Amino acid sequence: MREKDVASFTPTICKIEFMPGLVRPKFVALDSSHLGLVAADKEAKDKNRQRRAKTFEKNFEESGSVLLLCFHHVQELLSHQNDDVVARRVAFLQSLPMVAALASFRHDDTIGAVTDLQCFEAAIAFRNPAADALAVRYEAAKKMFRLGSGVDLVRPFLENWTVLRAEFARLAARSREVVAISRSGFAGNSDAKIVDLLKGKLRTPGDIHQQFENLHSRLSVDIQKRGDRRIPNPTFSSKSFLEEVKAFGMGAISTGNPGLQILQACGVDLSEIGPDTTVGDVGALAMFRRKLEILNQYLGLPWLELKAAVQENRLPSSIVSNAIALFHPDTQEWDGSELTDRYLACLAAYADVTYVDKRTHEASRQARQKLESFASLVRRVEKAGSYEEIGKQVLTC
């Protein structure tokens, strides 16, 4: 099952347009771990724990707040391996009389993932070439949220539970590899100038093979030492990734200028390369172009026009996600959940208050201080030691 197909199993959400002059609820996005704790206490036999959960829900309601959820919240909550834990979390979600959900870009009645959020932004950026990230956020926020009950939110997940449970496990395993590979500096040439590589001598197949063996050795060691401990086979993960890269690159070595061919295959034009453009710059641009290609499967826009019109610095979610990745503390273990944390952090450009884990909060704090683009977009980003603290805080914010 493909990742893009998972969205077809997302739940029904009633469409509500917020008209000018109407006061909408205060949208509060919680970290998945806090939601899991509320669910556990709400269904606990201990009366004190039940009382804590009830007090939290009462404070949340009296503050005029509504939980803002997206597909990744539900994915994390229902990915637990213990069936009883999952059942308690499902019961908690079903008990919510009203939730705000990120809308699906393709179907108004479904809950969305980060790709849906990016589609809304990219479509607006394409239609309004002069709009900066703030203007894109303003327009996207008008169409991005839907209100509905927790029962409606959960139902399709339960109807397709067998398929989704296996897919959740696959996505989690993939996230662990993505984080480990992206955090590793195994290539060691991100600062190299592209113009120098374009002038470089063509390597022989033997040289290329040896270079990939060296890369594989460094990457597998990094994954072994610092990758998520749940990665079952670091050597296999490294080899699989580099085999894909090698297959991509080997197709260009028979051409007159393999560097130019690789740039074109990555969706980067030679006109976009300046004297100081580095390998890291091109890598980031190529990743964004690939993401834009994936989004365009749903946008259906003319590719050349979309590529020319939509730059990464005009999309709020890209600014937030990239900043969180840049300033995320370099922990001893590269936990795979970091990728989902970045997805959830994108809500900070839209939610009134977004609660995140301590590492994402630290990244957000630094980004707010050092990046004006980030500081101008995100609203309140908070951390809390317990959901009880959140219940008290929302009454005063």
Give structural notes.
The protein is mostly helical and 397 residues long. It is built from 20 helices and 6 strands. The chain has helices spanning 3-6, 32-42, 47-62, 71-78, 83-95, 114-127, 133-141, 150-159, 161-183, 194-199, 205-226, 234-250, 258-265, 279-299, 303-309, 316-327, 337-345, 358-370, 372-377, 387-393, and strands at residues 26-29, 65-69, 99-102, 145-148, 353-355, 380-382. The protein has a 6-stranded mixed beta sheet. Residues 1-22 have low confidence and may be disordered.
In short:
The chain is mostly helical and 397 residues long.
Please supply descriptive tags for the structure shown above:
6 strands, six-stranded mixed β-sheet, 397 residues, 6% strand, 20 helices, mainly alpha
List the helices and strands and how they pair.
Layout lengths: L2 H4 L19 E4 L2 H11 L4 H16 L2 E5 L1 H8 L4 H13 L3 E4 L11 H14 L5 H9 L3 E4 L1 H10 L1 H23 L10 H6 L5 H22 L7 H17 L7 H8 L13 H21 L3 H7 L6 H12 L9 H9 L7 E3 L2 H13 L1 H6 L2 E3 L4 H7 L4
Parallel strand pairs: 1-2, 1-5, 2-3, 5-6
Antiparallel strand pairs: 3-4
Helix pairs in contact: 2-3, 2-4, 2-5, 3-20, 5-8, 6-7, 6-14, 9-17, 11-12, 16-18
